[in-house]
TrEMBL record:
GO terms for molecular function: glutamate-tRNA ligase activity. Residues 9-311 form the Glutamyl/glutaminyl-tRNA synthetase class Ib catalytic domain. This is Glutamate--tRNA ligase. Belongs to the class-I aminoacyl-tRNA synthetase family. Glutamate--tRNA ligase type 1 subfamily. Coiled coil: none annotated. InterPro entries: aa-tRNA-synth_I_cd-bd, aa-tRNA-synth_I_codon-bd_sub2, aa-tRNA-synth_I_CS, aa_tRNA-synth_I_cd-bd_sf, Glu-tRNA-ligase_bac/mito, Glu/Gln-tRNA-synth, Glu/Gln-tRNA-synth_Ib_cat-dom, GluQ/Sye.
Amino acid sequence: MSAATDTPVVTRFAPSPTGYLHIGGGRTALFNWLFARGRGGKFLLRIEDTDRERSTPEATAAILKGLTWLGLDWDGNVVSQYERKDRHAEVAHEMIARGTAYKCFSTAAEIEAFREAEKARGTSYPVFLSPWRDADPSAYPDAPYAIRMKAPRDGQTVIRDQVQGDVTIQNATLDDMIVLRSDGNPTYMLAVVVDDHDMGVTHVIRGDDHLNNAARQQMVYDAMGWAVPVWAHIPLIHGPDGKKLSKRHGATGVEEYQAMGYPAAGMRNYLTRLGWAHGDMEIFTSEEAMQVFGLDGIGRAPARLDFKKLESTCGHHIAMGDDAALLHELKAYLVAADQPALSEAQETLMLKAMPVLKERAKTFPELLEKGQFALASRPITPEPKAAEALDLVSRGILNSLTPRLQNVSWTKESLEPILNEVAAENGIGFGKLAAPLRAALAGRTATPSVFDMMLVIGRDETIARLTDAAA
């Protein structure tokens, strides 16, 4: 049985809180978010915290923080899988009543002895056949038991996957999996299905490392007579060398990318294109992606992380970003990177300089680097290379320039003729005058244009910096 096609779309992201939000998990969440939002559906968040030894509140907080930075909002409250364990147990017992599951009293020692005997016979993957599958309930001992699902003994289970195509599993390879342990705790396979069903999930979009789980989980749906969701198992992300992404390739956690200074909009754009395509669409907003994102555009091959492509994409988004929004995100980056905050005066100047700075910056560190002239305070101490431009002759030229800036209209159209006149009077081209001006205004050799800097910091600060340098 499959989920009805006219049912409102409900997707979910269900991470385990055992560490940070991996970049692959971030992309999975993004795909679910785009698919639901683009169809007027719901995007739900469930924390699969049944592993009590490894699950931590800190990891849950890190996951929520990573999703929030990426700009992925979810509907309703965050669901805790652990808190639903009574509901999972209830379903396991309901399966017994339906005749699709049974009580198994086999001990761990008996199961291990069976497996060892099968291995001795040369069986590669021994499937445990419980003697309690068809036992008379009157013969049940007064002992702890697990609840096992009755797997089909013959035939095939077909996973109709929207990305991988039809995947066929021989039922003879599937054992009667445990759905409720002897200590009363549900297994992951049961909990996932019960939660997805109760939450109304219509589309399960997740990494293809879960593909093998789908056959077992589909049997739970069938055992309960529930509609099977649409499956979509997406390939994992690999490093540039084609191997599974790991720390040796660089950052793997979403929060690391924020601390490295990538803008969230650029990150969303890049991750959307990492394994998904729509014609020649490369640079787009999330709203545009929602309109065209579909499961049919997801490729089957693992995607490779390309940091140059990521930087290029982020550069486009910084360039087309709203100035105030960029300043807001820049401030959040400084917090994430454990950098000093901007003063109110620096914020004002950075906002004023943003149209100049954002055109060629690919990350927030680059934006800050280009904006150092606006962040600096007097006296400006030039870097060694820039200081070379402030020789005795150049300082004399700057000294002759400052009086002419006192009453001129503070626009590029008015400033440009004056600077050109001063250069001509001293027998040099404007390029030769620009070097000492950069050193005086920013203390650096690589800066935005001299006129842009003068307009941002204003007349009084410009004259003061030139006077300092001339002296």
